[in-house]
Amino acid sequence: MAKTAEDNFRIEVWDREEQALAETISRSPDSTVSQAAWQAAIRRRPGMLLIHYNSRHVMEKILTPGEVKIPPQTIIDGSVHAGLDVALGDLREWHVLRAWCRSCSHHATVKPAGLIQRYGKAALFSSVERALFCTSCDRGGPVRLEIHKLPRN
Fold it and tell me: Is residue 142 reached through a cis peptide bond, with omega within 30 degrees of 0 on the bond before it?
């Protein structure tokens, strides 16, 4: 994402010594959006140093509670690939889930409401993916969940 003059608010993740930038989580021109992203970042990045900026000024800086859950090798060029986990409760009514079997490439649409009812809103994708199995090959996974948006009318 290119930085524009309107992207005043940003959230960065640094190493504990504040020597190396690991990733930029959010850039936004809107303070309210940035505050929501800040609260989500505190929950999603345990044990990491977060810095919340308004332009060049530090608004908040915190070493989040908990142990680091994201191994350093999952942060590649400032982007978290395998480390970012989504809770089922974060999904919205316009989201559709698609499950892909990594063994046979079979895919199927999964209703988020059914997963929430079975595993709860706090269940993370990583734990749900491990519990799912392919109905085509019956190998028991590994299954990958993807989030898609419903088409607009």
Answer: yes
Say if residues 64 and 47 touch (Cβ distance below 8 Å). yes
Task: Give the pLDDT confidence of 48-90 residue by residue, as tens digits.
Answer: 899 999 988 999 999 888 776 655 444 433 334 334 567 788 7
Q: Which residue has the tokens 């919340």?
A: 52
Backbone φ, ψ for residue 113 (5° rounding): -60, -40
User: Taking a C-beta distance cutoff of 8 angstroms, is the pair 136, 143 a contact?
Assistant: no
3-state DSSP of the chain: CCCCCCCCEEEEEECCCCCCEEEEEEEECCHHHHHHHHHHHHHHCCCCEEEEEECCEEEEEEECCCCCCCCHHHEECCEECCCCCCEHHHCCCCEEEEEEECCCCCEEEECHHHHHHHHCCCCEHHHHHHHCCCCCCCCCCCEEEEEEECCCC
Q: What is the rounded distance in angstroms from the CA atom of residue 114 to the CA atom of residue 97?
A: 11
Is 3's pLDDT higher than 50?
yes
Beta-carbon count within 10 A of 24 CB:
15
Alpha-carbon span 47 to 59, nearest angstrom: 19
Residue 9 φ then ψ, to 5°: -100, 135
